[in-house]
Amino acid sequence: DTGVSQDPRHKITKRGQNVTFRCDPISEHNRLYWYRQTLGQGPEFLTYFQNEAQLEKSRLLSDRFSAERPKGSFSTLEIQRTEQGDSAMYLCASSSHIGYEQYFGPGTRLTVT
Amino acid sequence: AQSVSQHNHHVILSEAASLELGCNYSYGGTVNLFWYVQYPGQHLQLLLKYFSGDPLVKGIKGFEAEFIKSKFSFNLRKPSVQWSDTAEYFCAVMSGGSYIPTFGRGTSLIVHP
């Protein structure tokens, strides 16, 4: 399967702990996106990379959130000092330089207790 | 900020009924338009897209959507739904020159056999 993969698929953590999620995009895709999705809502944009450069971050993204894509391939999303409000599905998507459509991974479901 | 409205949050149909899901957006310039679908237990996938040209676009599984610029709309249609069409449907809009889509909150479709 050469689709977008995410790890882990589920994460349960206690409030105040740090968590890190990984996304592996489709190999030839240069754009990578992170979204957050809560129940009954559509994906909400968090941040976007073109190759290794982080080009845009949502104003909704607090300082506790950071993302990297060090070699322009896989990406990590870290949430520091997690809060219960961070509980959500975190989606990763990638797209190629010649298209606008995005290919989504299965998501990482975060539960903060 | 751009916004996307999906007016029907929950739709319940019987097999063979016709389907139309509404999508309206707020951006007045050039847009790229998408419908994504999420089947139970699966990740988001592209159903169809509009970039330019014929405003009536056809997608997978017999779905089509019509771009009406004057109404800022991109409604999704299918003449005869099947039980396997049960899913969440998301409309997304990307303003011209941007690589970041805005998603609607989604419509949950349940098709009874």
What does this structure look like?
The complex is a heterodimer of chains A (113) and B (113). Chain A has 113 residues and is an all-beta fold. Helices cover 0% and strands 50% of the residues of chain A. In chain A, the strands form two sheets. In chain A, strands 2, 4, 5, 6, 9, 10 and 11 form a seven-stranded mixed sheet that branches. In chain A, a hairpin with a 2-residue loop joins β5 and β6. Chain B is mostly beta strands. In chain B, a hairpin with a 4-residue loop joins β8 and β9 (73-78). The interface between A and B is medium-sized, with 23 and 22 residues.
Summed up, what is this model?
Chain A is mainly beta and 113 residues long.
Give me the secondary-structure topology.
The complex is a heterodimer of chains A (113) and B (113).
Chain A: E1 5-7, E2 10-13, E3 19-24, E4 31-37, E5 44-50, E6 53-57, E7 65-68, E8 75-79, E9 88-95, E10 103-104, E11 108-112
Parallel strand pairs in A: 2-11
Antiparallel strand pairs in A: 1-3, 3-8, 4-5, 4-9, 5-6, 7-8, 9-10, 9-11
Chain B: E1 4-5, E2 10-14, E3 19-21, E4 24-25, E5 31-38, E6 45-50, E7 56-58, E8 64-68, E9 73-78, E10 87-95, E11 102-103, E12 107-112
How would you state the average pLDDT of chain A, rounded?
94
Low-confidence runs of at least 5 consecutive residues of chain A: none
The general outline of chain A is globular
Q: What letter string, H or E per element, gives the SSE order of chain A?
A: EEEEEEEEEEE
Give the CA-based shape of chain B.
Answer: globular
Q: What gap, in angstroms, lies between the N and C termini of chain B?
A: 41 Å
Distinct helical segment count of chain B: 0
Number of strands of chain B: 12
How can the largest sheet of chain B be summarized? 6 strands, mixed
Give the % helix of chain A: under 10%
Query: Which range does the strand content of chain B fall in?
Result: over 45%
Quaternary form? heterodimer
Percentage of helical residues of chain B? Answer: under 10%
- Bin the strand percentage of chain A: over 45%
Q: If helices are DSSP runs of H or I spanning 4 or more residues, what is the number of helices of chain A? A: 0
Class by alpha and beta content of chain A: mainly beta
Largest interface: A-B, 23 and 22 residues
Main pleated sheet of chain A: 7 strands, mixed
